[in-house]
Amino acid sequence: xxxxxxxxxxxxFFNEIHEIAKRDKDIVVISADMGAPALDKFREDFKKRFxxxxxxxxxxxxxxxxxASEGKKVYTFAIAPFITSRCYEFTKLNAGVMKFPIKxxxxxxGFSYDDSxxxxxxxxxxxxxxxxxxxxIYSPSDSITSRGLVRLVNDSQNPVYIRLDRKVLPxxxxxxxxxxxxxxxxxxxEDICIVSTGNMVHNALKISDRMERLNKAIGVIDVYRLxxxxxxxxxxxxxxxxxxxxxxHLLDGGLGSIISENITDNKIPVNLQRxxxxxxxxxxxxxxxxxxxxxIDIDSVIEKNFKPEIKxxxxxxxxxxxxx
Length: 324
Fold this sequence. Notes:
Layout: H1 9-21, E1 27-31, H2 37-45, E2 50-52, H3 57-69, E3 73-79, H4 80-84, H5 88-97, E4 103-107, H6 125-129, E5 136-138, H7 143-153, E6 160-164, E7 183-187, E8 192-196, H8 200-212, E9 218-223, E10 225-227, H9 232-237, E11 242-250, H10 255-265, E12 271-277, H11 287-294, H12 298-305, H13 314-322
Parallel strand pairs: 1-2, 1-3, 3-4, 4-6, 5-6, 8-9, 8-11, 11-12
Antiparallel strand pairs: 5-10, 7-9
Helix pairs in contact: 1-2, 1-7, 3-5, 8-12
């Protein structure tokens, strides 16, 4: 099914599952009281393979475990903080330790639910989920990525967590992309590269575009598979002198920690600057405002991490200020 500019990650993902389910009769979808047009279509066409378990995420994982033990390919769906932290022990034991290939699909990564407050913010999921044994983690940056990842996770024999953004984000990738590598260098730079994931890849690209207008080539890498990390990522990082990790997530255990571990374990001679959240935050006013309060918005990142290091001509200074 064609993805248009208004297709969300969620609908792109479940529309692709619907297509595969026509051929693969082992696919089952379980929802924790969540609705969506794509889910409605699946429920109508495959009545015996869709279950709404209600607001009971722990029980959803238990039911999924039973179905998976009988050979079913089970997709569980809920808001991201509830499918991760609320049923964490069930996932750790039933999916991770038992290695049942349950697919956990969470919508609302980062501040996606910007109007719902801290109960619906998902800023620690990477940290807690990456320590679950055998679990794979995917973090798409647009709807093309979201759909493309279905083809990979459906055949995986491991449990999987997919963190989807609630918002409809602009396209980054072409329809032909296969997403097998786990990351992609979207822009090549000279000395500095921003490594990001999910919606923050868009911020990284905008930062790079602004700096490019000042003749400063900043690279951008999208890490859409956070676990396991492709060993080739270390090769891409080694081409730069300065790496900046940018995430809408707590710094403790998030993308920056993953990149730091990769640099350390592979003895890459590169500097790393981690940009993310230092603590939980209680803020409203829209996603852009929340990012600004946290210092992870485009302007703040440029002001704090690039501006002091750049030697400007007079015209460059004028251009720089006009871009703010």
